[in-house]
Amino acid sequence: MSTADRMAAYLARQSRQHVDFDALAGAADAGDSSLATSPRRRRLLADAARTLNSRGLATLPKGSDGWDYSAHPPLPRWVKRTQPARSSRRRPAPRAFVKPLSFATTLNLTAADHALLGPINALLRDDPDAEIVPLADRSYQLFGDEKRLKDIERHYLVARGLLDLTTHLRARPTPAPLAMYELGPAPWMLIVENTAAFTSLRTILGAWPDRSQVGWLGFGSGDHLIASIPTALTAFRERDHPVDDLLMYADLDIDGLHCAQQASHRAQAAGLPPLLPASGLYQALLAGQPRSHSPATADAAHAAAAWLPPHIAPSVAQLLAEGLVLRQEALPLPQLRALLSPDAPLLAQLRDGPTTETPLPLPPPKDPPHDCKALRG
Q: Which of 166, 14, 168 is nearest to 97 (CA)?
């Protein structure tokens, strides 16, 4: 890198318009240990200043006051950064959209919208009945980037119901599958959030004396669970082992409860049963030692706890509002083993605990509070 290049790099990082030349010279010295002691240093610095000016990166002082004549050649005392020319934003030219994308003619589309819809328009024009393929495949075909359409379901055109993955992109999402294990023939699945609790329950259910009472055990949390839960339906069909009950056991905190609610709505949309709380486990977890956390507002706490049954929800809402949460690790393996008795029906112990109250499925939320997080503090 030349002396001028090092000065240019330093200049590009500055926010002030006038930059002392001593600072530019220091940047040049820092990048070339020989420059500071070179007898040609002043000449090299002067040449670099003229190079910055010729490249249009800096303007040199016009008056003599702006120059140091103490030695030859003279050096500028400062330079003025050249403001980059503002690119004129030109509205993309009108495009002839195929009939399935006719909605686009009524919208004030941005350049980014046109960049998205252009290749889709070409696909529908040239191959309107294209086979429906994984979204990443279509993304690579249209944009040369398999991840370009990764978050397309969050795009405002999709959210407004204008752009459809199947109809327009001729594609389908292919989320990573839910990790699930067929431990027995019973028609239920329990999804567990944390690895410790999952391992403990797998140990307990794997040794359950009456195998006919044991069903599926799944592992998933956060956004991955939301995306992957529809894939469980394929596994049920492949194994000819459907479920009537879908249960969830997660941390008692805002994120875990919101994710459970959203996973429940996604499950029902895919044709699965609603995701219900494993109330027997939650009730036992409430007896554990909570840990401190940022307090939730009363409204947020009650909204999150609404997924739980009435005999548990108020206690959890109060806990969250007081700045406390309960992680699954507060109910460790020995207590889980003691909680679940082989002398009683297993599903009833998981689903209902000491009460038979079961919460009703929730209506879909109008606006989910926030994205779920797989890792939480």
A: 168
Contact status, residue 215 vs residue 272, Cβ threshold 8 Å: no
pTM of the model: 0.63
- When pLDDT is averaged across residues 213-238 and rounded to a whole number, the result is 93
Q: What pLDDT score was predicted for residue 211?
A: 95
- Token duo for residue 86: 């503002």
- Residues of the chain within CATH 3.40.1360.10 domain(s) are 179-351
> 179-351 — its CATH code?
3.40.1360.10
- The position carrying tokens 């991840």 is 147
Q: Which among 221, 188, 216 is positioned nearest to 202, based on CA atoms?
A: 216
